[in-house]
C-alpha cells in the first residue's frame, strides 16, 4: 500500500512538473519579447524596411528571425549567467524550480535596469496600483524597460530614415523640374535608395550599431 502511494505521488509530481514545463515553454516567446533587446531590434529593422520603401522585402519572417539571432548574440552573457546560476543547479537537482526562477531573474533585472529610462521608471512607479508598494517590482520594471526600448528604437529609426527621405525629396524635385509629375517618385527613388544602402554596406552597419549600443 505504501509503495502504491509512493508511485501515485511520484506520478502526480511528474504531471505537475510537466504542466509547469509546458506552461513555461508556452510563455517563453512572450518572456523573450519583454525582458530582452528583441523589441528594440525588431522595431529598428521594421523602420528601416519602411524607410527604404519596401513593403514585403525582407519578409516579416526574415526580419523576426534576424532580430531573434541578434538578440541571442547580444543577450548571450545574460543568458549564460542565468544558465549558470539557475538552470545548472536545477538540472543537477540541487535546487527547486522556485529557487531556480528566483536565481535566474537577477541577471535579466540588471540588464533591464541598465537600459531603462529613469524618467519612464519613475512615471510607472507613480501610476502603479496602490497594491504594488515595491518600486523594484518586475511589474513596474518590465513595462518601463519596453517603453524605453521602443522610444530608443524610434530615435534610431529617425536617424536611419533621414537619408532615405532626402533621396525621396531630391528625386521628387528632379521629376517636378522635368515635368514628369505623373511618375510616382517612390518608384524612381527606390533603386537609388537600394544602391545607396548597398554602397554603404547597410546591413552590416546597422547590425553592428545595434550590437554596439548594448556594449
UniProtKB/TrEMBL annotation:
Family recorded in the similarity comment: Belongs to the FliP/MopC/SpaP family.
Coiled coil: none
UniProt organism field: Paracoccus cavernae
Residue ranges crossing the lipid bilayer per the database entry: 20-48, 60-79, 156-178, 190-211
Family matches, as InterPro entries: FliP, T3SS_IM_P
Record flagged with keyword Cell membrane: yes
Taxonomy of the source species: Bacteria, Pseudomonadati, Pseudomonadota, Alphaproteobacteria, Rhodobacterales
Function: Plays a role in the flagellum-specific transport system.
Cellular compartments annotated: Cell membrane; Bacterial flagellum basal body
Domain of life from the UniProt record: Bacteria
The protein, known as: Flagellar biosynthetic protein FliP
Stored NCBIfam families: fliP, PRK12797.1
Keywords: Bacterial flagellum biogenesis, Bacterial flagellum protein export, Cell membrane, Cell projection, Cilium, Flagellum, Membrane, Protein transport, Transmembrane, Transmembrane helix, Transport
PROSITE patterns: FLIP_1 (PS01060)
Membrane topology classification: Multi-pass membrane protein
Amino acid at each position: 500500500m505504501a509503495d502504491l502511494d509512493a508511485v501515485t505521488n511520484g506520478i502526480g509530481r511528474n504531471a505537475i512538473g510537466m504542466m509547469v514545463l509546458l506552461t513555461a515553454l508556452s510563455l517563453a516567446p512572450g518572456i523573450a519579447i519583454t525582458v530582452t533587446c528583441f523589441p528594440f531590434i525588431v522595431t529598428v529593422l521594421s523602420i528601416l524596411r519602411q524607410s527604404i520603401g519596401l513593403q514585403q522585402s525582407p519578409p516579416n519572417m526574415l526580419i523576426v528571425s534576424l532580430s531573434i539571432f541578434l538578440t541571442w548574440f547580444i543577450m548571450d552573457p545574460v543568458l549564460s549567467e542565468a544558465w549558470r546560476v539557475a538552470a545548472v543547479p536545477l538540472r543537477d537537482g540541487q535546487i527547486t524550480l522556485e529557487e531556480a526562477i528566483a536565481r535566474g531573474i537577477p541577471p535579466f533585472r540588471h540588464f533591464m535596469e541598465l537600459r531603462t529610462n529613469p524618467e519612464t521608471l519613475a512615471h510607472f512607479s507613480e501610476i502603479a496600483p496602490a497594491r504594488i508598494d515595491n518600486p523594484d517590482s518586475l511589474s513596474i520594471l518590465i513595462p518601463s524597460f519596453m517603453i524605453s526600448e521602443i522610444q530608443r528604437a524610434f530615435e534610431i529609426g529617425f536617424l536611419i530614415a533621414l537619408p532615405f527621405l532626402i533621396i525621396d525629396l531630391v528625386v521628387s524635385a528632379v521629376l517636378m523640374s522635368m515635368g514628369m509629375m505623373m511618375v510616382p517618385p517612390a518608384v524612381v527613388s527606390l533603386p537609388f535608395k537600394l544602391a545607396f544602402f548597398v554602397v554603404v554596406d547597410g546591413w552590416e552597419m546597422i547590425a553592428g550599431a545595434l550590437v554596439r549600443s548594448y556594449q
